[in-house]
């Protein structure tokens, strides 16, 4: 265990954070003025290895290098890790570290050999755990030890192992180290949080307006802790900022924007001793001193006045955009590739601020390319779908081998448990044959794919749909819910890595077309592929491109530069 020391041969979050600080300290003129110095400990992978051996997990670990035994004994390994123990000498060193931090909140983060490296992101595959660090020393030590065990156990999760197999890195030694960081922020009456946090990209893959320059970069901002910036929260929104045009909002006009603001805030609740989510209107009532004037705007609804999160004043009246842009460009040039950065920001009473760099890693970018071939004039009677806006990914003009269509009108009326059944069937259809990864498969369905809340979309796991090429979210689940571009989240990073094209169908845009009547006239292969689930034939349709009449095919023409797409039969 080391503090403020070099990492040696290990990589991951620890090296990314330290390298970013070193680069900026050398080349960014405002480093001393606005960058908050990191305060962290590094726990090496030798502790992880010793723990596995001590608690009888080493033989299971070795099995995971073989695809044939990859998933054997996972539950046994998890139980052994979560109920395992550390040698007394290591517990004393952990105890000394907690004495250093006192009762300041900390976060324990995975920092593995392969994680956040060139070629493999492992985005969201391993855990990071907040410790409020409140209570007696014994209680705080127990909470910390439990956090470490949860992270160690996540190395043997099915999701993480499937990712390693897909990236062909099973044989590489996945050395799990840890980065323990003091949480950046302020204590209020009963919560601890930063003023704002987010993710910054040196390259903007989503050009929703012609004035936006992709090479200028973008930010995904949230009020409070940054967990809401990197995790996809199904019924809430974040602020997307193009660094060369911060006034441009993806949602469109001011009338369209008002409903698409962040409603809830993540903070560390001191009394509950846990990470806690609360509505913004409630947290500012219960905690005095929270800086609302920079980040909110007064609104009125049905005669009632309230504050909603709005970053406009902060963006317009500070150098924050200029500083973030300068930092990202310096890091990009030093890395020799595009980068993404996680950060937290805290403002002082005089309007000055400090930026805490939490993580820096290479950004996986699929730059827009010109469409090969030219899409013909499309007869609207042969049009399946047409969108304007909400496209992230490479432009493409390709035949579509299969469309898996979840019927919005039927799905929305199903009980919750049956929606989970639909999600499992979608996963089976996406992996129907071993050759599915060579097919161009499109998912078309209501709400948000990958949601944890079935009332807001289809709750598939990413590993169930990792064979698809196109994901389209139809914003028709309920009033006020729209597709979520999710840029900067773990879900989004997985899509970028696999070059999956994202399309959002915004129902409020008059130029958008979803021709459900035409879809229902096309041959449906669902019952043929899954006869045992015939009762669900009204909820899912499977349209195979090679089963259309008269040799017709399904095509996708998507232009990410112009933000237009069409799916049609020709």
Compose a concise summary of this entry:
This protein has 18 helices and 27 strands. The chain is an alpha+beta fold. It folds into 3 domains: 2-30 and 37-183, ATP-grasp fold, A domain (Dna Ligase, domain 1, 2-Layer Sandwich), CATH 3.30.1490.20; 185-365, D-amino Acid Aminotransferase, Chain A, domain 1, CATH 3.30.470; 380-569.
Structural class: alpha+beta
Q: What's the mean pLDDT score?
A: 85
Shape: globular
Distance between the termini: 63 Å
Query: Poorly predicted ranges (pLDDT <50, ≥5 residues)?
Result: 1-10, 253-257, 478-482
**Order of strands in the sheet with most strands:** 18-23-22-21-20-25
How many separate helices? 18
Give a quick set of tags describing it.
Dna Ligase, domain 1, six-stranded mixed beta sheet, disordered N terminus, D-amino Acid Aminotransferase, Chain A, domain 1, 570 residues, 28% helix, five-stranded antiparallel beta sheet, alpha+beta
Structural summary, described in words:
It is a single chain. With 570 residues, the protein is an alpha+beta fold. The strands form six sheets. Strands 18-23-22-21-20-25 form a six-stranded mixed sheet. It has a five-stranded antiparallel sheet with strand order 1-2-5-3-4. Strand 6 and strand 7 form a beta hairpin. It is globular and about 75 Å long. The termini are far apart.
């Amino acid at each position: 265990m080391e503090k403020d020391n070099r990492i040696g041969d290990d990589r991951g979050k620890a090296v990314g954070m330290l390298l970013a600080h070193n680069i900026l300290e050398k080349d960014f003129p405002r480093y001393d003025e606005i960058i908050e110095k990191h305060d962290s400990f590094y726990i090496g992978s030798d502790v992880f290895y010793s723990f596995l051996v001590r608690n009888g997990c080493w033989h299971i670990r070795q099995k995971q290098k073989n695809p044939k035994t990859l998933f054997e004994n996972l539950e046994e390994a998890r139980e052994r890790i979560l109920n395992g123990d550390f040698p007394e000498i290591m517990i004393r060193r952990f105890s000394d570290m907690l004495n250093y931090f006192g009762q300041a909140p900390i976060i324990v983060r995975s920092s593995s050999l392969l994680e956040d490296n060139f070629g493999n992101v492992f985005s969201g595959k391993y855990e990071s755990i907040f410790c409020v660090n409140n209570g007696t020393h014994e209680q705080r030590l127990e909470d910390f030890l439990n956090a470490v065990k949860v992270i160690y156990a996540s190395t043997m999760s099915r999701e993480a192992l499937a990712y390693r197999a897909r990236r062909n890195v099973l044989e590489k030694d996945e050395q799990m180290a840890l980065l323990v960081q003091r949480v950046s922020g302020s204590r209020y009456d009963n919560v601890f949080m930063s003023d704002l946090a987010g993710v910054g990209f040196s390259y903007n893959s989503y050009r929703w307006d012609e004035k936006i320059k992709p090479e200028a970069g973008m930010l995904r901002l949230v009020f409070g802790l940054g967990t809401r910036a990197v995790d996809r929260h199904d019924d809430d929104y974040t602020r997307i900022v193009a660094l060369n045009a911060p006034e441009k909002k993806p949602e469109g006009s001011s009338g369209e924007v008002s409903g698409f603001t962040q409603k809830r805030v993540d903070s560390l609740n001191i009394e509950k001793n846990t990470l806690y989510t609360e509505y913004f209107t409630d947290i500012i009532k219960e905690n005095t001193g929270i800086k609302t004037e920079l980040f909110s705007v007064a609104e009125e609804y049905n005669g009632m006045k309230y504050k909603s999160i709005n970053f406009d004043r902060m963006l317009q009246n500070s150098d924050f955009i200029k500083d973030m842009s300068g930092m990202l460009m310096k890091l990009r040039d030093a890395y020799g590739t595009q980068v993404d950065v996680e950060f937290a920001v805290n403002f002082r009473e005089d309007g000055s601020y400090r930026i805490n760099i939490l993580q820096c890693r290479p950004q996986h970018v699929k730059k827009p390319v010109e469409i090969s071939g030219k899409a013909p004039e499309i007869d609207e009677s042969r049009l399946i779908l047409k969108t304007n806006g909400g496209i992230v990914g490479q432009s493409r003009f390709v035949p579509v081998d299969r469309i898996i269509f979840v019927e919005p009108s039927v799905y929305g009326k199903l009980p919750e448990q049956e929606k989970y059944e639909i999600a499992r069937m979608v996963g089976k259809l996406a992996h129907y044959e071993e050759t599915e990864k060579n097919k161009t498969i499109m998912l078309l369905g209501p709400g948000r794919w990958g949601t944890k809340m079935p009332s807001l979309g289809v709750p598939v796991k990413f590993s169930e749909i990792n064979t698809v090429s196109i994901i389209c979210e139809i914003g028709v689940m309920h009033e006020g819910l729209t597709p979520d571009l999710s840029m900067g989240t773990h879900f989004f990073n997985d899509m970028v890595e696999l070059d999956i094209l994202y399309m959002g169908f915004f129902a409020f845009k008059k130029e958008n077309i979803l021709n459900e009547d035409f879809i229902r006239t096309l041959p449906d292969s669902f019952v043929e592929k899954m006869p045992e689930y015939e009762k669900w034939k009204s909820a899912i349709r499977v349209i195979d491109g090679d089963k259309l009449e008269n040799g017709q095919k399904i095509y996708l023409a998507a232009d990410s530069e112009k933000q237009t797409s069409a799916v049609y039969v020709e």
